Fold Dihydroflavonol 4-reductase.
Amino acid sequence: MSVATKTVCVTGASGYIASWLVKFLLQRGYTVKASVRDTNDPKRTQHLLALGGAKERLHLIKANLMEEGSFDAVVDGCDGVFHTASPFYHATSDTQAELIDPALKGTLNVLGSCAKSPSIKRVVLTSSIAAVAYNGKPRTPEVVVDETWWSNPEVLKQMQQWYVLSKTLAEDAAWKFVKDRGIDLVTINPAMVIGPLLQPTLNTSAAAILSLINDDPKRTQHLLALDGAKERLHLIKANLMEEGSFDAVVDGCDGVFHTASPSYYATADPQAELIDPALKGTLNVLGSCAKSPSIKRVVLTSSIAAVAYNGKPRTPEVIVDETWWSNPEVLKQMQVSVLRFLFE
């Protein structure tokens, strides 16, 4: 069968990866049936309809991840399915309804529709590095992360990494679903996804990277809105990892409150993303303070983490005071970040 006679489905077609899939498939001569949440929303459809070959071979179909059977018409008659549709954001008021259910139930609903269509030869599921990266095992340079690795749902719940949990549960459920149904399933596990945009809005990965180099109003608007800010608040850009970066910030000050330090649990590089900014950042701030004779006191925001983990029993009669320190070796064994101990 030639490419010209083949039809392929792409779910979540307005997203970053899916938009590029649609573009490449059309370029190669495929007919594409693409699902979107709202076919009347130009932000989700205009960039797709403007693609070469779209007028002749692109069919946009409204579908809902949470509705069983909603994808029956989308996948019907297709030779293959790219399932990319899944919510990707970290701030949510209802993680079950907004993240986990659409990822897990949505994947099962799409696969359920695929199981009804005898024409489908393969399903490609966009999973994530999130589904394999968080299981408590050490990831040293010699470790090979392969299909035997899975993120641990219990670990993820403790870490409150709900997006990561959604991708883990969805991929696991997909493999279990196809096991006895004869569906040829392939999963891909991308990390950060960046590059030229087809859709009019930033994808989550690109937005995260852009926030590192652009001024982010989310970091400043609430401060500038405070009483007296217009007259007496001076916002100054500084980098924890740059020696001397805080010289201008602390110059002429009577006191310094040093609170800046990363505080999160899910990281691919604890040394670069957690320990170095906390430890070197604190030393850089103190180095700047040492150059300013006006400074009378520095207040450092440490954490209970700096004293709580040393292997000693904490019975009711024990007094935890300034003589207690968390033990870095104990923390490494527990895979708990040692940064609070180190920088204090």
Summary: The chain has a mean pLDDT of 86. The first helix runs from residue 16 to 27. The first strand starts at residue 7 and ends at 11. The beta strands are 7-11, 31-36, 58-62, 80-83, 122-126, 185-188, 255-258, 297-300.
